[in-house]
Design a protein that fits this description.
By secondary structure, this protein is an alpha+beta fold. Helices cover about 45% and strands about 20% of the residues. The strands form two sheets. The protein has a four-stranded mixed β-sheet with strand order 1-2-3-4.
Length: about 160
């Protein structure tokens, strides 16, 4: 990616897609490119033939997540709180990646390249819909209020694709 950036002197992103047909592979590559462009300059994402998104590939630690669900109940709850299935699956992947089966707004914001305020809004919306729960608090590293620790229902992973 660095060589490509040096040659072109432009921000570059790569989307890699796999599929059983050329059309499916192309659709997956477009989806991967879209995720790469929304994530950062100079990165690559991959979408495999099962619809699992992985990225950013340049990162030492990356996440994998799906963009579909066949669970109507979850879909309705997500609509109520304004969260997409892709975002929920990203949160589940980050929560799993952290290893302690919990997440804070600051960790979520860092992984998903969003503001902590937006991460809090998303997590609180999931709590309202009973998709997540507040399981504790932690003291901030500097001055300030206690930060909430959330746990997103990991049983949802088996119900999403």
């Amino acid at each position: 990616m660095e060589k490509l950036a040096l040659i072109s002197e432009l921000p570059s992103n790569v989307g890699i897609g796999y599929g059983e047909t050329a059309l499916t592979a192309e659709e997956n590559a477009r989806l991967a490119l879209n995720h790469a462009q929304n994530y950062d300059s100079f990165c690559a994402f991959l979408v495999d033939d099962r619809g699992i998104i992985e990225g950013a590939l340049k990162e030492q630690e990356r996440i994998s997540y799906g963009y579909r669900t066949e669970n109507k109940e979850i879909s309705e709850k997500l609509k109520q709180c304004g969260v997409t299935i892709t975002t929920l699956n990203k949160i589940l992947s980050v929560q799993k990646r952290t290893g302690n089966h919990s997440i804070t707004a600051s960790i979520l914001a860092e992984w998903l390249k969003m503001t902590p305020r937006n991460a809090r809004r998303i997590l609180n919306g999931l709590v309202e819909q009973e998709i997540a729960e507040i399981i504790g608090e932690e003291a901030p590293t500097a001055k300030g209020r206690l930060r909430k620790i959330y746990r997103v229902n990991s049983e949802l992973e088996t119900k999403t694709e």
